[in-house]
Fold these 3 entries.
Entry 1:
Amino acid sequence: MALLFELQDVGFEYDRIPALRGLSLQIAEGESVALLGANGSGKSTLLRILDALYFPSKGSTSFCGQRLTPELLNQDGFALSFRRRVALVFQNPDVQLFNPTVFDEVAFGPLQLQWPKEKVPSKVAETLELMGIAHLRDRPPYRLSGGEKKRVALASVIVLDPEVLLLDEPTSTLDPRSQGQIIDLIQEWKGSSKTVISATHQLEIVEDIASRIVVLEEGKVAATGTPAEILSNHELLLRANLVHAHRHSHGTLAHSHPHLHSHSKHEHEH
Amino acid sequence: MKRGGFLASTVVGFARALSRALMSEEIAHQPGLLQSLDPRVRVIGLFALVLAVTLSRKLAVVLALFLAAMMIALFSRVSIGILAKRVWLVVLAFTGVIALPAIFITPGNPVATFAGGSLRITAQGVATAVLLLARAETAVTFTTLLILCTPWAHALKALRFFRLPQEAIAMMAMTHRYIFLLIETAGQMLESRQSRTVGRLPAAEQRRMTARTAGVLLNKSIALSNDVYLAMQSRGFRGEVRILSDFRMRSWDYVGLLAFLCAGSIAVWIGR
């Protein structure tokens, strides 16, 4: 598989507070990767760097061999081609919903990316159907429930049919049924030629959405491996703040052990 | 509810209702006089009338333009009640504060005296204050009609047609969303504060809390609107507004444009 993203010794700071510290990572075309980490581990920042919304203060990021820089993204030709190929779903759907109706919201991307106008309405309608939100088409996005907003945010990116999907906490704030539907969708993309990179701290979904896990800890890669390798490494999960020590007692005997749930196996160790 | 809390909730409630009305663009999608015109005609026409208002020196002309604004509102299905409550009262409060001193400081024929003659209201002062108020009310009414009756994306595209730079359009697009986020965040913070406040705080503590809240509100809404801009960029926005419908001038649009320009020119001529 051809190399898609290459990050070398990437550093990034918010007002002198480091978010990423010397992070190096390679992602190949068609891979499905889960960026696993606790809150503040740098997952969202990394996704924004991959989407060329942020640029590293140290190190470099390359996409298909081209170094991503603000100057390159200012070039109309490259920006258009990059935005057509790579799309990001933000963690907070509210920041992604700024149009007066759901239809306008989903049509925003295709119009900005200069699709033929006659193609836009049918593709938007098709995407609304696919996401089960066709009945919301004329509603203002801010009047929707949390789950509906998340679906509209996903629809606004899925409509673009990008080669690379960056998903920031794709199932957070969703009820179990909606979570299941989003996981099904990601699994479909996993089986296709798309590259799917999801940031999450939910251990129970990583096996379903990724074939490789990158564990982030304090802005660095702490480990990479298959879901089976990572999920069985309790010491790593504890250190990366992804599981907590569960204290309880059996009669008079009190003890503690890591506490984790797995969605697919519903493993619940005691 | 305490008086202060009631006032704050009422102000935030009004602001929320207005910003939601603007965001949902319900009025802009209704059939009506302004809505039937090409967005470019709306932008040029209503700006021409705003210019006429600011250049007119005669109260009668400004009042005639105000009447015209009310007629346009009626034919564009904009509720006069909404304009009165959410526009005219607010403008009256803000402009009134600026216009009030003019009643006393403008030299001229006194119509009333106070404090042993040291404070005088002059006829010229009253006329100046009324003209200032009438101009502000009329100009803001025309601008509000443009905003209420034109989807924001169409208004921005129309401005782009007049060669406004992409950067300015991007800033306006963000400002629109920023105001909405600011009001929404202010509403949520007020509700959260009310849910955690029992009894009445001392005045000094209230002032400190208000200052802290204002700072946090500003930071939160700036961070949110930065994220909104990133989300727009991520889906290809580069300052150029693109919408589904293409602007096309029909004969009705030319009639509308001519009517606006004639009304503006006549008002400037008579009111000079």
Note: Residues 25-151+246-272 of chain B form one domain.
Entry 2:
Amino acid sequence: MTQESCETGTFDDEDLSPKIANAKPAKLRFHGFRPMRSGVYPFGWRVPCMTSSVGLHFKTYCMILIMVVFGPLGNVLLGKGMKSVGSAAIWAPSELPHIFIRIFTSGYIWLGVASLLTFFVAYMLILSWADFSYVQPASSVAYLVVALLGYFYLGEKIAPLHWAGIGVICLGVFVVGNTPPRTTEAR
Amino acid sequence: MREAFFLFIVVAAGTGGELCVTRAMKRVGEVTDFRPLEVVRVIVRAMKVPWMWIGVAMMALAFFSLLAMLSIENVSFVVPVTALSYAAGALGGVFFLGERVSTRRWVGVLLVCIGVTLVWLGKR
């Protein structure tokens, strides 16, 4: 589906045109996706570009899944790597070259960077069609994933108040996420 | 004290970088083809937009600040508190990209801020 077809309102997909002329596709889609809305997906699916709505959503969910897996994994690996480099609380400016060498010779750091690069490519792709203020909240389920990984994989201690805070962040994410992916005109 | 400084850099430079990258990618246009060669072509096209480079530079700065923070604190503390960039992101989306942010979304952003505060307090 080209960008031009969205802007001018013409449809180059032959199958979609009669449906849009006769029925109410937006309403049909709404019922079709309803279980997902109240279920585990805290994301909206209303989009102004009607021609590729379903495809746009599938694409969006796939990219978000990649982001939610590889983002937290990358952060956890970086955390594991940095713990062996030493605390920045006592870094002196003259030590920085040595610290950079230690950072870039750590295997965990490189694994973390690779994981974050995967995340970043998915992020760049999704930002080409969805709003920044939609994508950023939607991808933030990652905050729960990173806490779980920290707790189970790295054995970090997490206080009850800390868990509560992460819970509230996820609730905020849920509220924020259920809004349309694009509010600005396609350029 | 140093971790608060690093947090500020992570949030400010990270959000600023993401806003620049978004502006660049919106100029590149919607990605509809996911064959590897096409994806590479999109990346190359994105690299020709100056906003992309400004964005990447700011994100690199944020990345090294994040590494510094990770060396001081646990991952399960550092990553949730960087969620503060939501507030910055919503503000930036409104003022820099002309996106409309609904009341509902602002409520979510507020909840995220409360959550970050709780996480910070939970550490003490």
Note: Chain A touches chain B through 69 residues (CB under 8 Å).
Entry 3:
Amino acid sequence: MNPAVAATSAEAGRIRALIEIRDRYLTAIRFFFHQRGYREVITPVLVHCPGLDRHIEAIAAGDRMFLATSPELHMKRLVCHGARRIYQITPAFRADELGPHHRAEFLMLEWYRAGIGYIEMMQETEDLIRHVSAACDRIPLCADVPFQRLSVDKLYEETAGWKPSVYWDEERYFQDWVDIIEPYLQSIPAVIVYDFPAELAALSRLSPLTNRICERFELFLNGLEICNAYSELTDPYEHHRRFELSARHRASMGRPSYKKDEIFLKYVEQGMPECAGNALGIDRLIMALTGAGHIKDVSLFPEDAG
Amino acid sequence: MLDTTALRKNLKIIIDDDPWIVVDCQFVKPGKGQAFTRTRLKNLVSGQTMDKTYKSGEKIGEQARIDECSMVFLYEQGGVYTFMDNTTYEQVELNADQVGEALNFMTENMNVEVDFYNGTPIAITLPNFVELAIIDTEPAVRGDTVSGATKPAELSTGYSVNVPLFINNGEAIVVDTRTGEYVERVKK
């Protein structure tokens, strides 16, 4: 095909428009963080220890290394070194995740701020979304659309009739999440779901009020999960315990084991400052704000299966 | 026994002795949680649909042994669709529910695959690409060169697809029957 003709095809035009749209979102995100005194950092994509999450599978790169499933542990090392406000935009990789809201390679925005907890992080997240929407969207998220806040217990009690923090049943929790909770969240324009059961704490701090819940939240826009944030765990002993718990859980499910990140743990033992962190899927944010139904619709390379 | 890794649209499986087709399936994975596949299944005999959420790795059923036979769509009368085997001249009938989404793209004399389960016709499969005529679309505007712009166009089957602005009434286009999307204009 003649190049001039190829460039006028419907698909070429759509991709060129998408280049503009994605550029606007990335520019607005970077502007927001620089205005707030954040520094942009870049952490390795090729890592030895991809993190010990029970349900996240890493993609192996060669015999001994992996593609990063998240920049979390490296960014926290920078926090241990005294960085007060850092953010980064980076590809992250997860095996076997492919669907309308998932790709094995996706773009992640992750940021850490020392001296705050998850409540302040909720406000910062809302500020970010409103800023980005005002800068990029033809119809920005209305200032009078409130970001609702719902605890996990309240959400389950009202829609599924039980409280996960009182009686923990992991099987039932995720089955109900998929069958009841997620469809329910689709009816709410913006909602922060917070205070997850302690069993789903990952690397978040447990609540000082009760060890049944952790200081973790997720933002949903029309039911689409946009980000996941914590008051970060800083206790070195608890870090060891959580990693071991994850490793045992993975082994019991027959999943491959990943090494504990000893360098990260060494820095945590030397003292990790109190901070909050947040990981946000940029492709999902663009989907939610542009009304796209499939992650391919916001990708510049929709044909690439990953 | 198949597990969830085999799940895809149009997969035919036997669950509790009944043949089902996967109408829709979607990978879902709540944050920090395990993965699931949310499926909508249609019973190929009764037409009844059900929604089922499978955990990743869960067993879903046996692969259905379905016999496929090339046939020609002859005509529709009173909601009954008649197909004929071009070599044996044997004719079979299906209802609108069994023909399903294929109705959007099927025209008389089209070659299709008819699926048989235990000798009973239960469903049809269209070719991946079919040629269909446009019967109603806004005329192209001269000089409108916005690339990538599309407009709705009604096909001879009554189904509406988005097409580039240069497509006119009476022209034929190629449609991908799996996605329902415009592929290209048929060269005259």
Note: Chain B has a mean pLDDT of 89.
